[in-house]
Amino acid sequence: MSFPDTELIPNSSRRAPALFALCALLLSASFACKSEYPASGQQKGPGGGGRGGGEPRQVKVAHVEEMPVGASVNVTGTLAAQDEATLSIKVPGRVNAINVDLGSVVRRGQVIAQVEPGDYRLRVQQAEAALQQARARLGLQPQGDDDRFNPEETGTVRQARAVLEEARQNRQRIASLVESGVVARAEYESADAAFKVAQGRYQDAVEEIRNRQALLAQRRTELSLAQQALRDTTVVAPFDGLVQERHVSVGEFLGAAAPVVTIVRVNPLRFRGEVPERDAATVRAGQPVRVTVEGDRGLYAGRIVRLSPTINQQNRVLVVEAEIANPGGLRPGGFARAEIVTNSGDMAVTVPANAVVTFAGIEKVITVEDGKAREKPITTGRRAETWTEVLSGINVGEAVVLDPGNLQSGQPVNVVE
């Protein structure tokens, strides 16, 4: 059976593209099998195309070692001034001088401010005059500091004693006359009454002198108070420190106890921190403390000096205070971190601080094995300026790369001294 030519032409035209594609695929596969390069098409460039290629990198290493670093407790707290005092004026008056301002350095005994002393000088003069008068009434020199005297030697007592002696002798004479019958009994009774009156006057004279003696003591005290009030017109610094705040200005009238300035003592400083209850048993007075503050790379030393006698029931912490030497770089009121050394002989596995790399919150070191770098994640503990404690992830004696930078695991390295 024969078919018309018109039916064969469309079928051949549909098969031609499929045959052409099959031939192209077979041809490309044949070339790929004969090629000398990997099918991925990767090329080696200078220094190698993978982590293991290229020239070895020059690195310096240090060995993991165990060293005595001391057991410690890390706490946070606040720095406070060792002493803080708001100086007040003790007597009322108008301020006529103030010698310091914010931040001024003051020394113990230095004059800080003064109120007008004129009125108080007049009071001292008045008290001195009253004292001189009291001394004169006792037969003492108006000027002098010795208030001792014999009451029997005063004019008032001597006069009363003379009258008493006269009355005694008169009574005795009349008594003898009565016995001899020369005078009547009534004369003796009159003389006896006069004697008793003289006794009373003598006693009054002695009491008067004692009253004047007490008045002298009172005048002496009034003079001391007036002199003290005159001294109190001047405010002086009770300790070495710095002026934290000035409260008054020249010309202001101040009442008694009005604040003038606030001063603080900043060396040593007082660190006040809270130790968790689980570590409270290891903390004792006298233990060394190392303090660091935000924005300051310095390490400040001190010692625990005070501990609270109880654990705080609200947050279960023990409040401790340490004195921190402050040569001038720390300020009271700042936030601080403290490391309390509870056992100075404790051993720890450490690596140099510049061997630890942190990426995405994971800490690691890079060791050298068979001439290649190997990353090892680690868990760190205590830190110092030159070393870091390693709790897990690496063993004593292993070599770790110092300042690894962008060194990657598997990269060839050459250790140099």
SSE blueprint:
Blueprint (H helix, E strand, L loop, with lengths): L4 H30 L22 E3 L1 E3 L1 E4 L2 E18 L4 E6 L6 E2 L4 E5 L2 H20 L17 H26 L4 H47 L2 E3 L4 E6 L6 E2 L4 E18 H4 L7 E6 L2 E12 L9 E8 L10 E9 L3 E6 L4 E3 L2 E8 L2 E6 L1 E5 L3 E6 L6 E3 L11 E3 L2
Parallel strand pairs: 1-23
Antiparallel strand pairs: 2-22, 3-16, 4-11, 4-15, 5-7, 5-10, 6-9, 7-8, 9-11, 11-14, 12-13, 12-15, 13-14, 16-21, 17-18, 18-19, 20-21
Helix pairs in contact: 2-4, 3-4
Structure write-up:
Among the domains are: 82 residues, conserved putative lor/sdh protein from methanococcus maripaludis s2 fold, CATH 2.40.420; 62 residues, OB fold (Dihydrolipoamide Acetyltransferase, E2P) (Beta Barrel); 113 residues. It contains five helices and 23 strands. The longest helix has 47 residues. Helix 2 packs antiparallel against helix 4. 30% of the residues lie in helices and 35% in strands. The strands form six sheets. A six-stranded antiparallel β-barrel has the order 4-11-14-13-12-15. The protein has a four-stranded antiparallel sheet with strand order 3-16-21-20, with no helix packed on it. It is elongated.
